[in-house]
What does this fold into?
Amino acid sequence: MAAGGGGGEVVAWWWLQIDGIDGLIDSFGSFKKSVWLKAIQFEKAHGTGDTLYELLCVAVQIPKAEFFWLMLVNEKLIASDVSAAREILQVAHFRLPDSEEIWHAAFKLEYENNELERARAFLAKARSVNEGGGRPERMWMKSAVVERKLGDFGEERRLLDEGLGLFPWIFKLWLMLGQLEERLDNLTQAKDAYKSCVKHCPNSIPLWLSLAKVEARISSNILVVRDVLKMARKRNPKDPQLWLAGVRAEKSEPFAVHLMEKALKDCKGSKNRGILLAYSIEMSSTSEEWTTLVSSNMKCEEEDEDPHVIAAIGNKLFSDDGNTQVDEARIWLNRAVSVAPDVGDFWAFLYKFELKHGSKDEQKEVLRKCIAAQPKHGDRWQPISKAVENSHQPVEVILNQLVLALEKQEDKAAAQDNNKGHYHC
It folds into this structure.
């Protein structure tokens, strides 16, 4: 190991070489955080679990040792010793009663171990003491999540209303309130929540999208949805997500195609423009059409490496006119998960492909890699992974649910295709 850094870090590293942990503790107990981190990194790389634990137990004695308490807890969780982690957090609470991060760690431990009443109690205390800096709004959001899991929707609503009274600029609280009303099929109340939010948070794209979706559920009038999305684009110009929502909302193929052409021009140079190009590929009817589209739009390196475009090409090769190009499709879909392993949608596309065209070993390998990647994002992935009934489900279950949903969507599109022709976006 090279002794990188300067000053105290170098001294701390050499002292560990010469005199071990005891020497570091005796001679450098008051060193700054970076020195302790260097010593801890050394122990993680070259020591044992016991020596690392011993060093962390001393590190937490220095002033404002919040970070080291959390590391100590994490080491016990890695060792699957939940009881010890809980005991450490109790001591940490005593030493740092106002630490938001310690409160959050205690909640997370109980929630992830399905101890919901314990989690609820911790959050109630945290809300009462967490009035200062940091991100205290998290405590109201997490509290609402626990009540949702427990099925107490009245308390969930009360907490969200209380949180919004304190933090009306936090769009996620508005979003959670709207989603609660949607789950209860109170669509008018959901719309009111989203409309209130866009007044407080006009630059929140998720809120505009949610408002457009709930308007579409309430009314079959496309003009209402168009007006919402036009206003959203006026407040947030050149945003690909808002343009894409507009294209998806259109029922008429000519209108959708025309709007997509405008979107690609308006968002030229915008971050995340690839989602528009990817959907254009999905909309295209023939291989000639989408290959021309790709070659005329992918002008820069960023778009050439956009995972949404890569995945869309892989899917087209998978299903284009029924003539699957297996080897090419596999290359493109694998490339998508390599570029963006945190997006669950891409893993579902690849897994669905391998279930149809791959061997058992290839299927198992995709599943293994997906579990290792622990994806958290994706337009299709998140609605499933964040559903109340899936809050503690492993990645494998979410992946299989999404593949099933994709297959149902594909069957529905095929039925529409038989009735209406090629266009079925």
